[in-house]
Amino acid sequence: MLPPTDQQTPTAALLQAPEDQALEQAIGDMHLLLEQHGYVIALYPSGIRPEHERRLHAIRSVLESDRIALVKVDLPPLGVAVLVRQLRQLSICDFSPGVIASAARLLSHYIYAGALLNSVAKLDRVPVGLKSHARSWVPGSQFAVLAGPEPQLIKVGPVAEPLAGPTFRTHLLVARGQLPSEWVQETLAPAWQVQAVQETGVPADSPRWWGTAKLVEFAAHLPDISVLYQLVASVRREKCHWCEMELIGDRCAFCSSPLTAPLAPSHTAAPAAPRAALESRTPSTGPLQLEAGRLSGP
Known about the structure:
4-stranded parallel sheet, 12 strands, Serine/threonine protein kinase, 298 residues, 9 helices
Protein backbone atom coordinates (compact mmCIF):
# COMPACT_ATOMS: atom_id res chain seq x y z
CA MET A 1 0.00 0.00 0.00
CA LEU A 2 1.17 3.51 -0.77
CA PRO A 3 1.81 5.98 2.05
CA PRO A 4 -0.85 8.68 2.58
CA THR A 5 -0.49 11.95 0.71
CA ASP A 6 -1.13 14.03 3.83
CA GLN A 7 -2.11 13.72 7.48
CA GLN A 8 -5.83 13.56 6.63
CA THR A 9 -5.61 10.62 4.22
CA PRO A 10 -6.52 7.47 6.18
CA THR A 11 -4.70 4.18 5.96
CA ALA A 12 -6.21 1.00 4.53
CA ALA A 13 -6.51 -2.57 5.80
CA LEU A 14 -4.70 -5.23 3.79
CA LEU A 15 -6.70 -8.44 3.36
CA GLN A 16 -4.56 -11.51 3.83
CA ALA A 17 -4.28 -14.35 1.33
CA PRO A 18 -6.05 -17.63 2.19
CA GLU A 19 -2.76 -19.41 2.99
CA ASP A 20 -1.80 -16.65 5.43
CA GLN A 21 -5.01 -16.50 7.47
CA ALA A 22 -7.74 -18.95 8.46
CA LEU A 23 -11.24 -18.24 7.17
CA GLU A 24 -12.63 -17.83 10.70
CA GLN A 25 -10.05 -15.16 11.50
CA ALA A 26 -10.70 -13.37 8.19
CA ILE A 27 -14.43 -13.32 8.93
CA GLY A 28 -13.78 -11.94 12.39
CA ASP A 29 -11.52 -9.21 11.05
CA MET A 30 -14.10 -8.18 8.46
CA HIS A 31 -16.85 -8.11 11.10
CA LEU A 32 -14.67 -5.86 13.25
CA LEU A 33 -14.06 -3.48 10.34
CA LEU A 34 -17.80 -3.25 9.70
CA GLU A 35 -18.44 -2.50 13.36
CA GLN A 36 -15.76 0.20 13.41
CA HIS A 37 -16.41 1.90 10.08
CA GLY A 38 -19.94 0.97 8.95
CA TYR A 39 -19.02 0.08 5.36
CA VAL A 40 -16.12 -1.72 3.68
CA ILE A 41 -14.94 -1.26 0.09
CA ALA A 42 -12.66 -4.14 -0.91
CA LEU A 43 -10.72 -3.14 -4.01
CA TYR A 44 -8.77 -5.89 -5.77
CA PRO A 45 -7.14 -6.42 -9.19
CA SER A 46 -8.61 -8.64 -11.90
CA GLY A 47 -5.34 -10.60 -11.88
CA ILE A 48 -5.79 -11.76 -8.28
CA ARG A 49 -5.51 -15.51 -7.70
CA PRO A 50 -8.91 -17.28 -7.94
CA GLU A 51 -8.71 -18.68 -4.40
CA HIS A 52 -8.18 -15.18 -3.01
CA GLU A 53 -11.21 -13.83 -4.87
CA ARG A 54 -13.30 -16.78 -3.66
CA ARG A 55 -12.23 -15.94 -0.11
CA LEU A 56 -13.61 -12.41 -0.47
CA HIS A 57 -16.97 -13.65 -1.71
CA ALA A 58 -17.09 -16.32 1.00
CA ILE A 59 -16.55 -13.73 3.74
CA ARG A 60 -19.34 -11.54 2.42
CA SER A 61 -21.68 -14.53 2.10
CA VAL A 62 -21.05 -15.76 5.64
CA LEU A 63 -21.59 -12.31 7.12
CA GLU A 64 -24.68 -11.82 4.92
CA SER A 65 -23.79 -8.14 4.80
CA ASP A 66 -24.97 -5.60 2.25
CA ARG A 67 -22.34 -3.18 3.58
CA ILE A 68 -19.39 -4.85 1.81
CA ALA A 69 -18.54 -3.80 -1.75
CA LEU A 70 -16.23 -6.07 -3.75
CA VAL A 71 -14.76 -3.94 -6.53
CA LYS A 72 -12.59 -5.60 -9.19
CA VAL A 73 -10.44 -3.30 -11.34
CA ASP A 74 -8.45 -4.09 -14.48
CA LEU A 75 -5.23 -2.28 -13.62
CA PRO A 76 -1.65 -3.49 -13.04
CA PRO A 77 -0.43 -3.62 -9.42
CA LEU A 78 0.99 -0.09 -9.18
CA GLY A 79 -2.14 1.33 -10.80
CA VAL A 80 -4.27 -0.51 -8.24
CA ALA A 81 -2.18 0.98 -5.43
CA VAL A 82 -2.69 4.48 -6.85
CA LEU A 83 -6.45 3.94 -7.17
CA VAL A 84 -6.68 2.68 -3.58
CA ARG A 85 -4.93 5.81 -2.34
CA GLN A 86 -7.27 8.04 -4.36
CA LEU A 87 -10.30 6.36 -2.79
CA ARG A 88 -8.69 6.80 0.61
CA GLN A 89 -8.39 10.52 -0.17
CA LEU A 90 -12.06 10.73 -1.18
CA SER A 91 -13.23 8.82 1.90
CA ILE A 92 -12.82 11.95 4.03
CA CYS A 93 -15.11 13.96 1.73
CA ASP A 94 -18.90 14.22 1.84
CA PHE A 95 -19.53 11.35 -0.59
CA SER A 96 -21.66 8.37 0.38
CA PRO A 97 -20.08 4.88 0.47
CA GLY A 98 -21.92 3.92 -2.72
CA VAL A 99 -20.51 6.87 -4.64
CA ILE A 100 -16.95 6.22 -3.44
CA ALA A 101 -17.16 2.53 -4.35
CA SER A 102 -18.54 3.19 -7.83
CA ALA A 103 -16.01 5.99 -8.36
CA ALA A 104 -13.30 3.33 -8.72
CA ARG A 105 -14.41 2.60 -12.30
CA LEU A 106 -14.45 6.30 -13.16
CA LEU A 107 -11.06 7.15 -11.69
CA SER A 108 -9.36 4.16 -13.33
CA HIS A 109 -9.85 5.94 -16.68
CA TYR A 110 -7.49 8.67 -15.50
CA ILE A 111 -4.63 6.42 -14.38
CA TYR A 112 -2.02 5.83 -17.07
CA ALA A 113 -0.39 2.64 -15.83
CA GLY A 114 2.38 0.79 -17.59
CA ALA A 115 5.92 -0.55 -17.39
CA LEU A 116 9.26 -0.62 -19.14
CA LEU A 117 10.14 -4.30 -19.77
CA ASN A 118 13.15 -6.17 -21.08
CA SER A 119 10.87 -8.83 -22.59
CA VAL A 120 7.21 -9.30 -23.51
CA ALA A 121 7.53 -13.03 -24.18
CA LYS A 122 5.45 -13.89 -21.08
CA LEU A 123 3.19 -10.84 -21.11
CA ASP A 124 -0.42 -12.01 -21.48
CA ARG A 125 -2.42 -9.08 -20.09
CA VAL A 126 -1.73 -6.65 -22.95
CA PRO A 127 -2.03 -7.56 -26.65
CA VAL A 128 1.42 -8.43 -28.03
CA GLY A 129 2.07 -9.10 -31.74
CA LEU A 130 4.32 -11.83 -33.13
CA LYS A 131 6.93 -9.26 -34.18
CA SER A 132 7.22 -7.95 -30.63
CA HIS A 133 7.50 -11.50 -29.30
CA ALA A 134 10.34 -12.15 -31.73
CA ARG A 135 12.11 -8.92 -30.75
CA SER A 136 11.95 -10.01 -27.11
CA TRP A 137 14.66 -12.54 -27.83
CA VAL A 138 17.09 -9.90 -29.11
CA PRO A 139 19.59 -9.02 -26.34
CA GLY A 140 19.19 -5.50 -25.02
CA SER A 141 15.63 -5.01 -26.25
CA GLN A 142 13.30 -2.88 -24.17
CA PHE A 143 9.57 -2.34 -24.50
CA ALA A 144 7.31 0.35 -23.09
CA VAL A 145 3.87 -1.07 -22.37
CA LEU A 146 0.78 0.89 -21.41
CA ALA A 147 -1.93 -1.25 -19.81
CA GLY A 148 -4.55 1.45 -19.31
CA PRO A 149 -6.61 3.38 -20.05
CA GLU A 150 -5.88 2.13 -23.61
CA PRO A 151 -3.32 -0.65 -24.18
CA GLN A 152 -0.25 0.19 -26.24
CA LEU A 153 3.16 -1.40 -26.80
CA ILE A 154 6.21 0.21 -28.37
CA LYS A 155 9.84 -0.84 -28.77
CA VAL A 156 12.15 1.63 -27.06
CA GLY A 157 14.92 2.93 -29.26
CA PRO A 158 16.46 6.01 -30.91
CA VAL A 159 13.46 6.27 -33.26
CA ALA A 160 10.31 5.11 -31.50
CA GLU A 161 6.68 6.09 -31.64
CA PRO A 162 5.48 8.02 -28.58
CA LEU A 163 3.63 6.29 -25.79
CA ALA A 164 0.18 7.85 -25.52
CA GLY A 165 -0.02 9.85 -22.31
CA PRO A 166 -2.43 12.01 -20.35
CA THR A 167 -3.61 15.36 -21.69
CA PHE A 168 -4.04 16.75 -18.18
CA ARG A 169 -1.63 17.50 -15.36
CA THR A 170 -0.39 14.47 -13.45
CA HIS A 171 2.26 13.18 -11.10
CA LEU A 172 4.27 10.12 -12.10
CA LEU A 173 4.85 7.30 -9.63
CA VAL A 174 7.78 5.04 -10.49
CA ALA A 175 8.65 1.60 -9.06
CA ARG A 176 12.09 0.33 -10.03
CA GLY A 177 12.44 -3.40 -10.53
CA GLN A 178 15.51 -5.28 -11.74
CA LEU A 179 15.82 -3.35 -15.01
CA PRO A 180 18.63 -0.75 -14.86
CA SER A 181 17.18 2.02 -16.99
CA GLU A 182 16.46 5.76 -16.68
CA TRP A 183 14.09 5.85 -19.68
CA VAL A 184 10.98 6.46 -17.59
CA GLN A 185 12.46 9.45 -15.74
CA GLU A 186 14.54 10.89 -18.58
CA THR A 187 12.28 10.28 -21.60
CA LEU A 188 8.73 9.39 -20.58
CA ALA A 189 8.28 11.97 -17.80
CA PRO A 190 9.29 14.96 -20.00
CA ALA A 191 7.18 13.66 -22.91
CA TRP A 192 4.13 13.40 -20.66
CA GLN A 193 4.92 16.78 -19.04
CA VAL A 194 4.34 15.43 -15.54
CA GLN A 195 4.52 17.91 -12.69
CA ALA A 196 6.44 15.67 -10.31
CA VAL A 197 8.07 12.24 -10.16
CA GLN A 198 8.00 10.08 -7.03
CA GLU A 199 9.54 6.66 -6.46
CA THR A 200 8.17 3.73 -4.50
CA GLY A 201 8.84 0.04 -4.02
CA VAL A 202 7.81 -2.52 -6.60
CA PRO A 203 4.49 -4.23 -5.73
CA ALA A 204 4.96 -7.90 -4.91
CA ASP A 205 2.58 -8.98 -7.70
CA SER A 206 4.25 -6.91 -10.44
CA PRO A 207 6.68 -9.58 -11.77
CA ARG A 208 3.81 -12.07 -12.12
CA TRP A 209 1.51 -9.49 -13.72
CA TRP A 210 4.09 -8.25 -16.25
CA GLY A 211 5.74 -11.62 -16.87
CA THR A 212 9.21 -10.50 -15.80
CA ALA A 213 11.04 -9.05 -12.82
CA LYS A 214 13.24 -6.93 -15.11
CA LEU A 215 10.95 -3.93 -15.24
CA VAL A 216 10.34 -0.34 -14.22
CA GLU A 217 6.64 0.12 -13.44
CA PHE A 218 5.00 3.54 -13.64
CA ALA A 219 1.62 5.20 -13.14
CA ALA A 220 0.61 8.78 -14.01
CA HIS A 221 -2.28 9.99 -11.90
CA LEU A 222 -4.27 12.95 -10.58
CA PRO A 223 -2.72 13.76 -7.17
CA ASP A 224 -4.93 16.65 -6.00
CA ILE A 225 -7.91 15.70 -3.85
CA SER A 226 -9.80 18.80 -4.98
CA VAL A 227 -9.55 17.70 -8.62
CA LEU A 228 -10.60 14.16 -7.71
CA TYR A 229 -13.55 15.60 -5.79
CA GLN A 230 -14.62 17.75 -8.74
CA LEU A 231 -14.32 14.80 -11.13
CA VAL A 232 -16.55 12.53 -9.05
CA ALA A 233 -19.00 15.30 -8.15
CA SER A 234 -19.49 16.15 -11.83
CA VAL A 235 -21.18 12.80 -12.55
CA ARG A 236 -24.91 12.42 -12.01
CA ARG A 237 -25.86 10.32 -9.00
CA GLU A 238 -28.45 7.57 -9.08
CA LYS A 239 -30.06 5.34 -6.46
CA CYS A 240 -29.85 1.56 -6.75
CA HIS A 241 -33.33 0.07 -7.17
CA TRP A 242 -32.29 -3.05 -5.25
CA CYS A 243 -30.24 -1.98 -2.21
CA GLU A 244 -30.99 1.78 -2.43
CA MET A 245 -27.31 2.70 -2.24
CA GLU A 246 -26.27 5.90 -4.01
CA LEU A 247 -24.06 5.37 -7.06
CA ILE A 248 -22.51 6.93 -10.14
CA GLY A 249 -22.24 5.05 -13.42
CA ASP A 250 -24.42 2.19 -14.57
CA ARG A 251 -23.97 -0.43 -11.83
CA CYS A 252 -24.12 -0.57 -8.05
CA ALA A 253 -20.79 -1.46 -6.48
CA PHE A 254 -22.40 -3.03 -3.41
CA CYS A 255 -24.99 -5.40 -4.92
CA SER A 256 -23.83 -5.35 -8.60
CA SER A 257 -27.34 -4.52 -9.82
CA PRO A 258 -27.52 -2.47 -13.04
CA LEU A 259 -29.65 0.61 -13.29
CA THR A 260 -33.21 -0.10 -14.37
CA ALA A 261 -33.07 2.51 -17.14
CA PRO A 262 -30.06 3.03 -19.46
CA LEU A 263 -28.01 6.13 -18.83
CA ALA A 264 -27.70 8.87 -21.38
CA PRO A 265 -24.44 8.82 -23.40
CA SER A 266 -23.10 11.78 -21.42
CA HIS A 267 -23.34 9.69 -18.25
CA THR A 268 -21.97 6.39 -19.52
CA ALA A 269 -18.69 7.88 -20.74
CA ALA A 270 -16.07 9.20 -18.37
CA PRO A 271 -16.18 13.00 -18.27
CA ALA A 272 -13.23 15.08 -19.35
CA ALA A 273 -10.60 15.67 -16.69
CA PRO A 274 -11.27 18.90 -14.80
CA ARG A 275 -9.01 21.84 -15.51
CA ALA A 276 -9.55 23.67 -12.26
CA ALA A 277 -9.84 22.43 -8.72
CA LEU A 278 -12.81 23.11 -6.52
CA GLU A 279 -12.49 25.22 -3.44
CA SER A 280 -11.68 23.39 -0.24
CA ARG A 281 -14.50 21.29 1.16
CA THR A 282 -15.17 20.39 4.76
CA PRO A 283 -14.23 16.71 5.10
CA SER A 284 -16.50 14.24 6.80
CA THR A 285 -15.99 10.71 8.02
CA GLY A 286 -16.21 8.16 5.21
CA PRO A 287 -15.83 4.41 4.68
CA LEU A 288 -12.62 2.46 4.81
CA GLN A 289 -11.05 1.08 1.62
CA LEU A 290 -9.45 -2.33 1.64
CA GLU A 291 -6.80 -3.54 -0.75
CA ALA A 292 -6.80 -7.28 -1.46
CA GLY A 293 -3.71 -7.32 -3.64
CA ARG A 294 -0.39 -8.35 -2.11
CA LEU A 295 1.41 -5.05 -2.57
CA SER A 296 4.63 -3.97 -0.97
CA GLY A 297 6.41 -0.65 -0.77
CA PRO A 298 7.13 2.15 1.62
